Amino acid sequence: MFANRLKKRARHFARWAKRGGVSCYRLYDKDIPEIPLAVDWYEGRLHLSEYARGEGPASDAWIVAMCDAACEALEVPQDRLWIKRRERQRGLSQYEKVGAERARFTVSEGGLRFLVNLSDYLDTGLFLDHRATRAMVREEARDRDFLNLFGYTGAFSVYAGAGGARSTTTVDLSHTYLAWAEENLALNGFSGPSHALVQADVSRWLDDMPEAHWDLVVCDPPTFSNSKRMDDVFDVQRDHVGLLRAVLRVTRPGGVVYFSSNFRRLKPDPAAFAGATALEISDQTVPDDFRNTRIHRCWRLEKT
Ligand SMILES: C[S@@+](CC[C@H](N)C(=O)[O-])C[C@H]1O[C@@H](n2cnc3c(N)ncnc32)[C@H](O)[C@@H]1O
User: What's 127-303's CATH class?
Assistant: First the structure.
């Protein structure tokens, strides 16, 4: 069942991807409820991740059978598949190499290049569900000062640079991800003082920034974060009002903020959008390869 489904989706998406110039996409997303996996295609490599399941983790034998089925159905050699399991790797099979090997390579998207790592972290470095949002940012970036909050590996900053942004500023708490962002920017020919990388807690950093400084902002916070480098925990439901107020303060009048969250139960408080017009645009930002149309929610704010 799994192999047949993968073959069918692969046939469909190969055409779709070619038309859209897309080479990394979600092939399977828990389509069969009894097979709770996500399968992502990264230019001939496969990245599988296990969904949490009520009855506990899947057995090693089941995982190996699914990996075999995926490799065979999609004609991918076994050493080009990585699986992210919910529980610790136990090194029992040929697939369980996660963390042991740095499977880093570059992929293209929208004519740009990005470094991905399929083996060492839960996420790969490129969130495929924001492909369309990135394209929107590129369209709007010309001569803008662009701010990328919770910027991760800087993919939005690369797109803003490609769209002709006057400057990009990428803010993240993690040194590792900022170093990765710097590599992504450099891969696409962006470096120097007009592409700033800032290691900071976004909320605290915003408080020290001048008013009305940026024209285009992406704010894509985690649902929850309690890093050692922060004094307090961040909880998107509790903290989004204060966060967006601070973001709008540093945004120039007429400027645009893309606010996104993966927390599907987020109930935005209208107070968060005070001083801006806000429109939910998730139906335009969630791409066609995501069966789960609630993978993220995204709003476009225009500061009045
Ligand atoms: C959901 S990811 C953002 C994805 C990114 N916008 C993209 O599409 O590539 C969340 C990021 O927020 C960072 N982070 C978490 N808490 C933070 C905080 N308080 N201040 C700054 N960055 C934070 C994490 O290190 C991580 O890189």
Answer: alpha beta
